Each structure stands twice: as C-alpha cells, then as structure tokens.
Amino acid sequence: MQITKPWLYLPAQVTYNIGHPLLKIWAKVRKQQTFNWQQFDWRGLHFNNPLGTSGGIDKNAELIEAWWSFGAGFVEIGTVTPRPQKPNSGKILGRNVGHLALWNKMGFPNDGALSVKARLDKIRRPYPTPLFINIGKNRDTDNLHASEDYLYCIRELKSYADVFVVNISSPNTADLRQLLKPENLQILLRPIAEECRNAKPLILKLSPDMSISAFKEALDISYELGISGWIISNTTLNRAEGLNFPKEGGVSGLPVADRAKAFLKLAVEHLGERRFDRLLISSGGILTPQDVFERLHIGAQLVQVYTGLVFNGPLFFSHVAQEVK
Ligand SMILES: Cc1cc2nc3c(=O)[nH]c(=O)nc-3n(C[C@H](O)[C@H](O)[C@H](O)COP(=O)(O)O)c2cc1C
C-alpha cells in the first residue's frame, strides 16, 4: 500500500487530537453516502453492508454521524466505563508506517456512561445503521466486582444500543484479561448475559493472545451462556520482528492480521453449526478491500476497522464498495 496521506506525516498523537474535529467537518461538507452491498439482517437489525468501525475509534459517541456519512455499515462506540477516566500516564499512542501498525496504551479514557448517554440522547432515531456500544470496567474496579460495572453500563445505555460488546480483552487495563480465563469468565458473564437475555444481543470481544485451548473454552462457555457472538479480535501484546514499540500496550494493524485470521478460522471450525445463529465479527489488520472480502469469505458476517481507517482515511468505506462493483 502506498502511503500518501498527509496526516501520516504528523506524530500519531497529533493526528489523533486533530482527527476528530477534522473528520466531523469533512463529514458535514460532503454528501452523506450509503453503500449497499452484501446487505444482512440479523435479529431485527439491518446492515446495509458488513463493514463497520471498531471499538476505541469513537470512545465518546462524538463521531457516529460522521461514520454514517462516510458509509459505514454499522458503528461501534466506546469502550465506555461507568465513571469517566483519564488515559494511562505517559505516552499512549504510536505508529509505524513501514509495518502498517499502531501501538496504544490508552486504558479506556472516556467521559463515562452518563455523559455518553447525554450525547446519544441528542441523536435522532431511527439510526441509519445498527449501533454497537462497547463497555468496560473502570481501572479502579477490581475483577471481583467487574460485572457490576458492565451491568451499570448496560442499564444506563440500553435504550440507545442495538448491540452491547463486552470488552475484557484490552491489554491496557491491569488484569482485565484475567477475566477471559474460564473460571473467571463464567462468573463475570453469567449476570451480564442474564441482563441482556431477551433484551439486547451481547457480543464478547476476544484477545489474539489467548492460547488455542483458552480461546476454544471461552467460545464454549460464552456460547452456553447465550452470548450472541464474538469479535475476533483485539490488539496484541506480541511484537513482530523489527517493530520497536514499547513492551507494554497493544499493537494493531498488519502485525495482528495473521492471528486475527487464524482465530477466525478456528472459531468457524470449532463452533461448526453452532455459529449459524450467532455473529462472528472479524477485527485486526484489515487494511485493504481484499482483506475485507477475505474475512467475509473465511466466515465472518461482519468486519471492523480501526487501523485501516487511520492508514486509508475514512473514504475506505467507499473504496471497498467500489471494489465490490
Ligand atoms: C488507538 C486504539 C484504541 C483502541 N481502543 C479500543 C477500545 O477502547 N476498546 C476496544 O474494544 N478496542 C479498542 N481498540 C482495538 C480495536 O478496536 C481493534 O480491535 C484492534 O485495533 C484491531 O483492529 P485494527 O487492526 O483494525 O486496528 C483500540 C485500537 C487502537 C489502535
């Protein structure tokens, strides 16, 4: 991929800071576009196309209308936590253009569930696409009480969400990934699944750093608890050779692509027929239209992008739709 985007010459954090207001202005001055390809209906939700935004790209529900305007098939906001919180200290964002990779150590900075709720309240219904709300726990909530944080977010935001995403796979909140361990996952998910049963689809976002057996076990446990689907996957703690990011923090983009694909394949195989009434969503290293089609071909019904939008810009939705033609 040729990198000709001016924002890639600025430091990653600067691009991040100016990106939101610029994206909003850009979205406002262009004609809203809707791309209809591989339309998909699932549990009463209609997707014009299967390509959407990934968690973290709009933590505070400030860009929903912009993503709609650029033609996303669905939009995810968050991760939202019950109380507002600041980012982790120190450097929290990096970029390596040669490796088509981002690095972040953000740790769920967000305005908190009530501020996000106030912002969502101003958006007119019906939404043109499904809205996913990604929820997390505050960093000072210990794992024993984590489910209370997720329940709080669901109760506060349920009239705005079409789908909830439970994020316990970020590497940037201490011990969060411990909740993916089978013995903890049961305890965490049971009350959350109960709360959402017959109300909202609930999706679990998995980590690319799980062992194969832990990954399969997490699928089985969450399937049995009635989880509606899985996002495969979040950022990785692994470092590709030559990638000089700090040891802590999650890497996204090309270095996570192989693992995201391998785990998607594994989920398709392992779930077998069980996957047909659930949703498989691929995330990780989707950088070209061909990557989108490949993930759909492997068996994802939906595909999400974050790093791909940083490297390609928001017209990526349009480029993919053109390739379909
Ligand atoms: C800067 C940054 C912040 C992120 N924040 C979140 C987040 O708050 N919640 C979440 O579930 N995932 C978050 N992610 C992970 C992405 O949603 C996505 O799963 C991951 O980056 C892999 O996809 P990609 O290669 O398309 O970026 C973040 C990723 C990046 C790069």
Secondary-structure map:
Layout: H1 12-29, E1 40-42, E2 45-47, E3 51-53, H2 64-70, E4 75-80, E5 93-96, E6 101-104, H3 113-121, E7 131-135, H4 146-157, E8 163-167, H5 182-196, E9 202-206, H6 212-224, E10 229-232, E11 250-253, H7 254-271, E12 279-283, H8 289-298, E13 302-305, H9 307-312, H10 316-324
Parallel strand pairs: 3-13, 4-7, 7-8, 8-9, 9-10, 10-12, 12-13
Antiparallel strand pairs: 1-2, 5-6, 6-11
Helix pairs in contact: 1-2, 4-5, 5-6, 6-7
Bound molecules: flavin mononucleotide.
Flavin mononucleotide is lined by residues 54-56, 59, 79, 93, 102, 104, 106, 108, 134, 167, 170, 205, 234-235, 252-253, 256, 283-286, 305-308.
What does this structure look like?
- With about 325 residues, the chain is an alpha/beta fold.
- It has one domain: TIM Barrel.
- The protein contains 10 helices and 13 strands.
- It has helices at about 10-30, 65-70, 115-120, 145-155, 180-195, 210-225, 255-270, 290-300, 305-310, 315-325; strands at about 40, 45, 50-55, 75-80, 95, 100-105, 130-135, 165, 200-205, 230, 250-255, 280-285, 300-305.
- It has an 8-stranded parallel sheet with strand order 3-13-12-10-9-8-7-4. It has a 3-stranded antiparallel sheet with strand order 5-6-11. The protein has a two-stranded antiparallel sheet with strand order 1-2.
- Helix 5 links the parallel strand 8 and strand 9 (about 200-205).
- The longest helix is centred in the first third of the chain and has 18 residues, at about 10-30.
- It starts with 11 loop residues before the first helix and ends with a helix.
- The model has no long low-confidence stretch (mean pLDDT about 95).
- Flavin mononucleotide binds near residues 102, 285 and 306.
